[in-house]
Amino acid sequence: MGNRQDGLVEALDVEQRTVSWLYGRLDVARGRAQAALRQVYARGGGTRQAMVEREALAGEQARRLAQLNAVERGLCFGRIDDGAGRSTYIGRIGLRDEGHESVLIDWRAPAARPFYVATATDPGGLVRRRHLHLKDRLVVGIDDEVFDLEGMSEGDRRTLVGEAALLAALRRGRTGRMGDVVATIQTEQDRVIRASLQGALVVQGGPGTGKTVAALHRAAYLLYTHRDTLERRGVLVVGPNPMFLRYISQVLPALGETQVVMTTVGEMFPGVRASAADTPAVAVVKGDVRMAEVVARALELRQRVPEGDLVVELDGLRLRVPHAVCERLRERARAVRLPHNMARKLYVTEMLKELAKAEARALEESLHLEELANGDPELAELAEPMNLEGDLDELDLELASSRLWGEPEVRRAVDDLWPELTPRRLVSELLASPETLWSVAPPGLDWRELVRPAEAEWTAGDVPLLDEAAELLGEDDSARRAAAREAESEQAGDVLYASEVLESTGVLEEGVFARADVLAGRHADDGAELTTADRAAADRTWAYGHVIVDEAQELSPMAWRMIMRRVPARSLTAVGDLAQTGSAAGARSWGEVLDPYLEGRWRVERLLVNYRTPVEIMRVAADVLRAFAPEQEPPESVRSGESEPRAVRVPVAGLPALVREELAEIGSEVGPEVGPEVGPEIGPEIGSEAGAGRVGVVTPDARHAEVARLFHPEGDLDAPVVVLTVGQVKGLEFDAVVVVDPAGILAQSPMGGQDLYVAVTRATRRLTVAYEGELPEVLSRLPQKSTM
Ligand SMILES: Nc1ncnc2c1ncn2[C@@H]1O[C@H](COP(=O)(O)OP(=O)(O)OP(=O)(O)O)[C@@H](O)[C@H]1O
């Protein structure tokens, strides 16, 4: 015992010396980046070109500084020893000593790989893997895994220390935000993270298998390994909802990567925020890939030919363009195969010329008639017939065209035949018109589901339709302008961030440099200094270098069409679980959604170990899965829990008391003054003082408001109690979960079984199912208790 204790003290001492020295190197690197930043700004003045270059350089240095700051926590977390007595330290970033020797290896570098892939059966030349646990800059714990005891020196054997680092990490209380797992990435996850940039990778895995966390580490890995390509083209991460994006928002910054665009399908059309939800039946129709045809045909209907001739009354003249000419002009404008708004330019030019000719003809006719009426009929008959139309040369036509374009009557007539359209207008007018839908929908597509008022709010299902429309219409200025305005307003946030960077790094010194706005790289008059991520996020037509889609099973075929447009090189990672598909328009198989674009050129990696949900809870989840998706396999839990899951018969009013019990069980601190009877105050009372540990209350959609009223603050992920629908809770996790009204969840959509599976797999420690009437048969394994 005494020996082990001595060994630990000795090992901690050795590692502390190394770690302190590494932090010293980090401080040196920071000092250098600060000095470089100051130097850039000390130059001052110069031409506009010089200024632009200077700001680009400053932006780069500032990002480097931000990255060096981001790795402060847990700078070094691992060490590997090989049989030749060499030790390598692994950390969040790579560092070198004065002699340029590598002293800390970036976790993404090839040299760090053995740390993640060595196993007892295949140690890859390692004799030991050591995990270091730091608190601030202090080494507070060590875990060893020994692969070859014989290969270790006597001294090293004496200082062996062990408790599985992974299990320690998994036992930690949840904070409401996902953290990085660089120190404990598992071999199967490592394969996903380091897969090649080229091609499409599907990561299929059950709940809690680390799909999200692996996908985010993959983003960081790809940016590190292919920085040149990806810094120029950017990486896009698509998540299921804004709450989820908030949940994962800290993982990449903690890994030193801030240049990734994160969005949801509902936010992918610049200037539109999808705030409403479609019913499952509507989602299915809207998500059907045949909707692309519906939008295209609706647009064709907007390129009209008048019933008879086109007649425009102008200053007493009747300008007449024959029907056949109108038809010809439309065909010519279509034949150029440009998007509608661009082809319109051609159409308008040609139509105005026709109208100019028609005007000359009408004028001629009216003058002729005048002569006939006023003069000697004999003379009039002898007079040379005028040929005003024939006398028009190109210049005359152009002048007449531009004069005519200024006439509201002309403009109205042309707009009616080939209007300038925005995607919003095309889609909202289409969905508001049963006649149009009826005439453009292909047989078998239930277009009646789509009909809604023109002023209806946008839904996430509308966004791919808007994107489709934008493709067909061509550049839509209004959306771009809206996005530019948004980007401008975000500038304020960036300036604030930049000034924080400057302040925290001590660079913001009076006189030298007080220009956080410059560092933020945003000038109203020039977008050249925007980062790739900023530019990409504001540009609907941006082609990303790599796209990661999380909860990819939820995307409809129309959403995939939109995503594929963003990644023409088809370098993408789709992570998801077909057993958790909640959207009626979502995927039933990966081939079904990917083959239309990749024709089998995609591969699957499977993650099989559940790091979140303990065995006891997973048994309940497996019953649900077996009942609703028997072809899917539940993952295997890596650990067993501290408590058996339970079912409690309780009215909604009793939920605050139940949640209080759960908070107490997971060790979250609740003020003693909060009694079960004061449910509504439970949130604020336990707000900021709460210890680690969160309770998630999951409800059917229809009961969310009723239950959320009992707890505050609503929807705040950092609060100790969060009330969410199944759609919102997807991808999240909590120490304890209370699933309310399981029968309601099962009944709420055709995918109710999958929804219940999602709900019961969110807990890391405790699961309670709260019900009022009968407990669904599928949960009969749960021991039942009544508080009614
Ligand atoms: N290698 C690891 N080391 C430590 N923790 C891990 C590891 N892998 C996964 N975890 C943890 O397991 C939990 C589940 O991970 P994650 O949310 O990525 O799973 P998922 O497969 O996306 O789940 P779901 O399908 O339910 O959304 C997280 O808390 C994550 O941090």
From TrEMBL:
<keyword id="KW-0378">Hydrolase</keyword>
<dbReference type="InterPro" id="IPR027785">
    <property type="entry name" value="UvrD-like_helicase_C"/>
</dbReference>
<dbReference type="InterPro" id="IPR000212">
    <property type="entry name" value="DNA_helicase_UvrD/REP"/>
</dbReference>
<feature type="binding site">
    <location>
        <begin position="205"/>
        <end position="212"/>
    </location>
    <ligand>
        <name>ATP</name>
    </ligand>
</feature>
<dbReference type="GO" id="GO:0000725">
    <property type="term" value="P:recombinational repair"/>
</dbReference>
<dbReference type="GO" id="GO:0043138">
    <property type="term" value="F:3'-5' DNA helicase activity"/>
</dbReference>
<keyword id="KW-0547">Nucleotide-binding</keyword>
<feature type="domain" description="UvrD-like helicase ATP-binding">
    <location>
        <begin position="184"/>
        <end position="614"/>
    </location>
</feature>
<keyword id="KW-0067">ATP-binding</keyword>
<dbReference type="Pfam" id="PF13538">
    <property type="entry name" value="UvrD_C_2"/>
</dbReference>
<dbReference type="InterPro" id="IPR014016">
    <property type="entry name" value="UvrD-like_ATP-bd"/>
</dbReference>
<dbReference type="GO" id="GO:0003677">
    <property type="term" value="F:DNA binding"/>
</dbReference>
<protein>
    <submittedName>
        <fullName>AAA family ATPase</fullName>
    </submittedName>
</protein>
<dbReference type="GO" id="GO:0005829">
    <property type="term" value="C:cytosol"/>
</dbReference>
<dbReference type="GO" id="GO:0016787">
    <property type="term" value="F:hydrolase activity"/>
</dbReference>
<dbReference type="GO" id="GO:0005524">
    <property type="term" value="F:ATP binding"/>
</dbReference>
<keyword id="KW-0347">Helicase</keyword>
<dbReference type="InterPro" id="IPR027417">
    <property type="entry name" value="P-loop_NTPase"/>
</dbReference>
